[in-house]
Design a protein that fits this description.
This protein has about 325 residues and is an alpha/beta fold. It has 9 helices and 10 strands. The protein has 2 domains: about 140 residues, ATPase, nucleotide binding domain (Nucleotidyltransferase, domain 5), CATH 3.30.420.40; about 170 residues, Nucleotidyltransferase, domain 5. The longest helix is centred in the C-terminal third of the chain and has 25 residues.
Amino acid sequence: MTIIYACDIGGTRIKLALIQNGRMIARGELAAEPEAGLAAVFSRVARERPALCRAAGVDEREIGGFALAFPGVVEPGTHRILSAPRGKFDEASRLDVHRLIRRELDLPAYIVNDANAALAGESMFGAAQGFANVVMMTLGTGIGTAAIMNGVPLRGKHGLAGNLGGHFTANPRGAVCPCGNAGCAETEASTWALAGHAHARREFSGSLLAQEPLLDYRAVFDCALRGDDLATELRNQALDVWAGVVVNLIHAYDPDRVVIGGGVMNSGTMILEHVRAYVDRHAWTPWGKVTVVRAELGNDAGLFGVAGLATLQVFREEGR
């Protein structure tokens, strides 16, 4: 089977893997360094290929294509990047990404939104296997979502369908999000917005959070467990926002199962318990209960998913 060179660009890290027949045979990571631009990413990714091939014991010529999971809107059919998170790879929509990949890696490319890739991975190899109606929420730097209905991955005309759960309105009087909406779930409770919420509070200087070298949700959950009032408030706010996103996804897409993944799920037990209880109280599902489960593939779901999608596509874009 053809080996796929898979790449999943995150807010802070870029995950890389060689995947063959659904099996990861080598893995690596790079710092994202979005300020250097997307073209520089592909140059760095190309330089990592020989080491990954040596680790896997394969020849570079055995790689049949490059599969990219990108944190933005990707147009179905053309796989053009239409938008990127503001401040991270802003130039992506102006670039011929397929041409860049050809130039740097000399491989045909398949490109898909990162949340769609993660759900595809869980559907093929993880917690969503066997479910024709399933949604996923990924909690990382931002909030990603994706949906499969009646066995068909949702994309929509422009690639937005199912992807914008992070931009559901969670607080109509909230801060304006970089997307232009007010009070998005991401502006209320995501890693990129967390420091702003914490520093805006007068009690921050006396909080255990002020002593943390990195202000992320790991620190929030840890400090809350140690009894810190501000951390507890920020944790509970995030739990309610994330649970509200899940209820909105259930109401919008009528799934049998919800899968939650992403790096924030390192605190997954408490998140799952809260979301399940919130869904039981607030989701309108007269037919029964939606199951809420943790992703089985962890942070590698996107790598497995985009490689699997690329293999199924058989690189029809090869002539680009």
